[in-house]
Amino acid sequence: MTNLFLMTTVITFILLFVLYFNIKHNYHLKKEIEKKAKDLINYVKLYDKNVIFSKTDLTGIITHVSEAFCEVSGYKDYELIGKPHSIVRHPDMPKEAFKAMWDTLHTLQKWSGEVKNKKKDGGYYWVAANIEADYNDAGLHVGYSAVRHNITAQKEVEELKSELESINNYLEDQVNEKIIEIVSLNKDVKETQKEIIFTMGTIGESRSKETGNHVKRVAEYSKLLALHSGMHEYEAELLKQASPMHDIGKVGIADAILNKPGRFDEHERKIMDSHAKLGYEMLKHSDKQLLKIAATVAHEHHEKYDGTGYPNGLKGEEITIYGRITALADVFDALGSDRVYKKAWDDESIFKMFKEQSGKHFDPNLVDIFFNNLDEFLEVRDKFIDKIA
After folding, report:
1. Closest by alpha carbon to 301, among 322, 287, 286?
2. DSSP secondary structure string for all residues of 40-99
3. Which residues, at least 6 apart from 315, have a Cβ–Cβ distance to it below 8 Å?
4. Is the pLDDT of residue 26 over 80?
5. DSSP assignment of 312-368, as one string?
6. pLDDT at residue 54 greater than cutoff 70
7. End-to-end CA distance of the chain, in Å?
């Protein structure tokens, strides 16, 4: 009897112990379930508040919207549920885009893309949307679920960039047009400047009964000599444009002296020689490169390489390259042309004189260039030959 009682007591104790731990375990399990349920509810609330989410039936009628959906669209949930999803369609989105979306959904059961939606207040927002088919517990296709990410700021930045690019392109076009206008105007100014300088150059020559072709030939000879001596094309062209002014000082010389058929006396020679300084004084005040070169040419084209020229008796490379070139070009043309005080020389006499005057009247290097390229100089002479009246 004692053993039976003891055994019953032990069994009872064990059962009570198991029951205690079972009750305790169930209590903790219930608390854990309640906590997870609470967390899940919080997650759902958080998801609902932060994720732009909606559900529709198979025809596109809204059956559920998240708080975030209502927040971004400006609608209340009761204003959206039961309405077609097109309630938020922005007019900027073409109907064809939505047709393509539905065709993809019907075929693939999912679609991703960017959509511009309309707010209740008429504003807009952009979303990157992912839409998938929604199934019930029985596995039947009952509608669609859509999760969206607000990309309005990103799209506004893109639109701003596009607008800025468009503005920049417009401004660039306007600047290019103005540059073209300025270049064209500058070209016109330069051409006018060249024409004025050439015309002024011919004035001095015409007063001494010389033809306009004299200044044209001297200009062409000068450029040829400049290029063959290694001068840059731009600078050589400037010299060509400036060289017609070499005798501009003759406008200050009286006709009686300028057109005297015989030799000058000492007084007349001094007056005639003053045209170099007169030309320089007329042109020296300009800060334009072309007129600076013209002033130098007018001043130095009668200087001689050995220092016996005028007006300053410069020697060798004390004479600028502009003066040395124009001196040779001017003499070559003058010797080959009729003047009031002489007849034109024949080529043999001219060439003989040039060889004799190399290192005396003329820069020997330029004399060598002249003879090494003689065909080009004779071609220029033939091209601008004086017409017989």
Report:
1. 322
2. HHHHHHHHHHHSEEEEEETTSBEEEE-HHHHHHH---HHHHTTSBGGGGB-TTS-HHHHH
3. 305, 306, 307
4. no
5. S---GGGS-HHHHHHHHHHHHHHHTS-BTTBPPPPHHHHHHHHHHHBTTTB-HHHHH
6. yes
7. 168
The pLDDT confidence band at residue 312, using thresholds 50, 70 and 90, is very high
Strands 141-150 and 52-57: antiparallel
| Nearest Cα residue to 55 out of 138, 152, 132 | 132
Query: Alpha-carbon distance 10 to 16, whole Å?
Result: 10
**Least confidently predicted of 32-41, 115-124, 291-300, 357-366:** 32-41
Show Cβ contacts of residue 116 under 8 Å, excluding neighbours closer than 6 positions: 90, 92, 93, 124, 125, 126, 155
User: How far, in Å, are 75, 121, 129, 309 from residue 86 at the CA level?
Assistant: 13, 15, 15, 97
| DSSP conformational letter for 387 | P
Length of the chain as a residue count: 389
Tell me which amino acid residue 166 is.
S
pLDDT at 194: 61
Structure-block tokens of residue 92: 């900027």
Q: Is the confidence at residue 346, as pLDDT, over 60?
A: yes
pLDDT at 248: 86
Short-list 346, 213, 379, 219, CA closest to 293: 219
d(CA 311, CA 360): 16
Identify the residue with better confidence: 199 or 231: 231
Active site residues: 250
Contacting residues for 320 by C-beta, under 8 A, at least 6 apart: 296, 300
Residue that has been written with the tokens 């401004």 in this structure: 171
| Joined tokens for residue 166 | 């468009």
Output the CA torsion 357→371→345→198 (10° steps).
Answer: -100
Residue 385 in tokens = 């030959």
pTM: 0.53
